[in-house]
Write a structure and sequence with these properties.
234 residues; six-stranded mixed beta sheet; 26% strand; globular
């Protein structure tokens, strides 16, 4: 479904991604692991058109995405839930969800909003509430719900558990599994490596802009290097 080939991305003179290549097959959950500064967020921002690559290619079902504006990337079926949620704080829950459907002109928007409320019942209870007054967990639900309103085929999730209490982390990851089972392919960036590897089929480990390891999630979870660096084991 998604193929990244020899991708090079810079911030000014800083070479942030140094020729990474990976694939995401339809229906999978694939996770990108790595420490802060490894290039995980840069990867997602490049895939969604927010950053411009200087080399390599990104293809969705054989069609290059390089040079395509972010709103056109959304139109092709890729939505991005950014690190830090980035909701519209002064708009209501419903207005935020409506913004997620801004590229659409079909008649199914109301039905899809009801689907989001099924996935996140808490949002239905808060539908008229100003988004900036929601709890951290509710804001994360809203950020994911807003992305779902674009009817994505591929969902890019950047640190969905950041800043959440453990019980909410489990709830968010259960929801990620539910969304995947409903037919959405997911590329997940997550500092909570143990949780990410528990729900993913495959994973890639980034170190300072390069791919250091890759493989089935279970194998990575058993890898001594991964266990030491990302799972907190001595």
């Amino acid at each position: 479904m998604l193929e990244v080939r020899d991708l090079h991305v810079y911030y000014g003179e800083i070479h942030a991604l140094k020729g990474i290549s990976f694939t995401v097959r339809q229906g999978e959950i694939v996770t990108l692991l790595g420490n802060n500064g490894a290039g995980k967020t840069t990867t997602l921002r490049t895939l969604s058109g927010l950053l411009t690559a200087r080399g390599g290619d990104v293809q969705l079902e054989g069609v290059s995405l390089l040079g395509i504006a972010p709103h056109d990337v959304v139109g092709k079926g890729i939505t991005h839930v950014p690190e830090g949620r980035r909701i519209f704080n002064r708009l209501t829950v419903v207005e935020n969800l409506e913004m997620g459907a801004y590229t659409r002109g079909d008649a199914g928007i109301d039905q899809d909003m009801e689907h989001v409320f099924t996935v996140f019942p808490r949002l239905k209870e808060r539908r008229a509430q100003i988004a900036g007054t929601l709890s951290g967990g509710e804001q994360q639900m809203l950020a994911i719900g807003r992305a779902l309103m674009a009817k994505p085929r591929l969902l890019l999730l950047d640190e969905p558990s950041m800043g959440l209490a453990p019980v909410l982390v489990e709830q968010i990851f259960e929801t990620v599994l539910t969304i995947n089972r409903q037919g959405v392919t997911i590329l997940l960036v997550e500092q909570n490596a143990a949780m990410a590897l528990s729900i993913a089929e495959r994973g890639y480990v980034l170190e300072t802009g390069r791919l250091a390891l890759e493989g089935p999630a279970r194998e990575l979870a058993d890898n001594p290097e991964v266990r030491r660096a990302y799972l907190g084991e001595a």
